[in-house]
């Protein structure tokens, strides 16, 4: 999967330019996190990846094909979108029906659907809830129901909009497993998140947006080392990262063991 943006612009009105000339290439199966304060243009950006929004300037190409040549319904086979609010996505009377709906629309055969329902239910932790009405699920289960419904379609790329919102630790651990599984299948995971601990633990590439432009794009270590630029975009690194930076450690760390390791290395170096 390759998503290429060339000078992408999106204006909701004459005075409100949400995206201002974005050039980006997302490809392969390396998971990508898109971060930035509210109003930075993150959701507007990813809604162009399957045609929910169309460019008002510049272009979006999916595997070399211009986004404007196909409908959103056609693109959703290739690029799945998990909305921030599950209630925007759930509309059927059981988890099973939610899972089966998309694949049926695209002509997946019954045996494949049945096999995938079991696989995806296990992955999303909903094996015992397949015959439950989605509105009787907990908020966390609802979120995983929408994730499952999108994965069922077997898209080449999956966009998660704030997936950790309202999640507990076990929910975050399950999300990590899902992202790893999709990566193992060669799929591209693109995630918008405000949760920096989740970002640093799961994503090797991070894109920072500010006022509709890309401020930084690089490895997680490179990006979180740029403290001044991050401050400009109102992004706060995880607490342990800030402690390490405050202590003057040269290495960018995201976990306590890495912090201890970095201190030991510096001590040995100076010792």
TrEMBL record:
<dbReference type="Pfam" id="PF00005">
    <property type="entry name" value="ABC_tran"/>
</dbReference>
<feature type="domain" description="ABC transporter">
    <location>
        <begin position="3"/>
        <end position="236"/>
    </location>
</feature>
<keyword id="KW-0067">ATP-binding</keyword>
<keyword id="KW-0813">Transport</keyword>
<dbReference type="GO" id="GO:0005524">
    <property type="term" value="F:ATP binding"/>
</dbReference>
<keyword id="KW-0547">Nucleotide-binding</keyword>
<dbReference type="InterPro" id="IPR003593">
    <property type="entry name" value="AAA+_ATPase"/>
</dbReference>
<comment type="similarity">
    <text>Belongs to the ABC transporter superfamily.</text>
</comment>
<protein>
    <submittedName>
        <fullName>ATP-binding cassette domain-containing protein</fullName>
    </submittedName>
</protein>
<dbReference type="InterPro" id="IPR027417">
    <property type="entry name" value="P-loop_NTPase"/>
</dbReference>
<dbReference type="InterPro" id="IPR003439">
    <property type="entry name" value="ABC_transporter-like_ATP-bd"/>
</dbReference>
<dbReference type="InterPro" id="IPR050095">
    <property type="entry name" value="ECF_ABC_transporter_ATP-bd"/>
</dbReference>
<dbReference type="InterPro" id="IPR015856">
    <property type="entry name" value="ABC_transpr_CbiO/EcfA_su"/>
</dbReference>
């Amino acid at each position: 999967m390759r998503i290429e943006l060339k000078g992408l612009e999106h204006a909701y009105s004459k005075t409100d330019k949400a995206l201002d000339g974005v050039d980006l290439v997302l490809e392969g199966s390396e998971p990508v996190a898109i971060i930035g304060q509210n109003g930075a243009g993150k959701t507007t950006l990813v809604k162009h990846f399957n045609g929910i929004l169309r460019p008002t300037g510049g272009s979006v190409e999916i595997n070399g094909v211009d986004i404007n040549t196909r409908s959103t319904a056609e693109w959703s086979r290739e690029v799945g979108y998990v909305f921030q609010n599950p209630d925007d996505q759930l509309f059927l009377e059981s988890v099973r029906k939610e899972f089966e709906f998309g694949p049926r629309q695209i002509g997946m055969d019954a045996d494949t659907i049945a096999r995938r329902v079991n696989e995806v239910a296990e992955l999303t932790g909903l094996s015992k809830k397949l015959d439950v009405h989605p509105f009787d699920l907990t908020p966390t289960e609802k979120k995983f129901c929408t994730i499952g419904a999108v994965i069922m379609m077997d898209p080449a790329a999956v966009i998660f909009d704030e997936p950790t919102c309202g999640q507990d630790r076990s929910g975050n651990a399950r999300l990590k497993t899902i992202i790893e599984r999709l990566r193992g299948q060669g799929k591209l995971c693109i995630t918008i998140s405000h949760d920096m601990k989740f970002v640093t633990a799961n994503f090797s590439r991070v894109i920072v947006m500010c006022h509709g432009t890309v401020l930084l794009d690089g490895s997680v270590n490179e990006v979180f080392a740029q403290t001044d630029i991050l401050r400009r975009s109102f992004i706060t690194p995880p607490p342990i990262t800030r402690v390490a930076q405050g202590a003057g450690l040269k290495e960018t760390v995201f976990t306590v063991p890495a912090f201890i390791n970095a201190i030991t290395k510096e001590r040995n170096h100076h010792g």
